[in-house]
Amino acid sequence: MLRPLRDNRAAVNELIRQQALPHGHAFDKQYLRQASIKKFNPKAQRPMSNTKLLYTSASAFADGITISQFGRILRACTGCNRYIFVDRCSSHNCDVAPVNVAEESFYLPHMMMSGNCPGLTPKDIQAFYEVCDTCSNVYSHRYRRYHSCPQPEDD
Ligand SMILES: [Zn+2]
Ligand SMILES: [Zn+2]
Fold first, then answer.
1. Report for 29-33, 42-46, 51-55: range of highest mean pLDDT
2. Category of 78 on φ-ψ map: left (φ > 0), alpha (ψ -120 to 50) or beta
3. What is the distance between the alpha carbons of residues 95 and 137, in angstroms, rounded to a whole number?
4. N or C end of the chain: which has fewer CB within 10 A?
């Protein structure tokens, strides 16, 4: 007995659909090479995350961060010339008003982590941070009396 015409059509449509479908390649070594996955050493000391560095730079413990770590967590905006937290560059808005870093309630990590990230002017940085004359770490003015130089192996 012949199949009804519409069943044939469904079978043909299914064949066409299968031919049009993309097919997968096996994930062989070639793709692993292409992905250029970077190595890491589990025994090596992990570098601090940008967020951790930002919080440490403004912490009341005033241990501070090194000047090169300080440089690593900031980017200078070519639009407004302010210094923006490196992880907020994509959402920073040059039109947002700068903040008053001298205000009692000002909390630097919050401002730098916020979506717009108003950022810091060179003057703001001067007003907020200082550099230790002994260990060269950067920490906030506000907590200078709590600063003690870190041991060399803590770096
Ligand atoms: Zn800007
Ligand atoms: Zn120091």
1. 51-55
2. alpha
3. 32
4. N
Tokens 């937290």 locate to 85
Domain definitions of the chain by residue range? 50-154
Per DSSP, what are the bridge partners of residue 130?
Answer: 139
The CA 40 to ligand 1 mean position distance, Å, reads 34
Q: Using DSSP, state whether 140 is helix, strand or coil.
A: strand
What is the structure's pLDDT at 31? 93
Nearest by Cα to 146 from 34, 65, 62: 62
Rounded (5°) CA angle 56-61-64? 45
3-state secondary structure of 144: helix
Task: Give the Å distance between the CA of 98 and the centre of ligand 2.
Answer: 30
Confidence of residue 23 (pLDDT cuts 50, 70, 90): confident
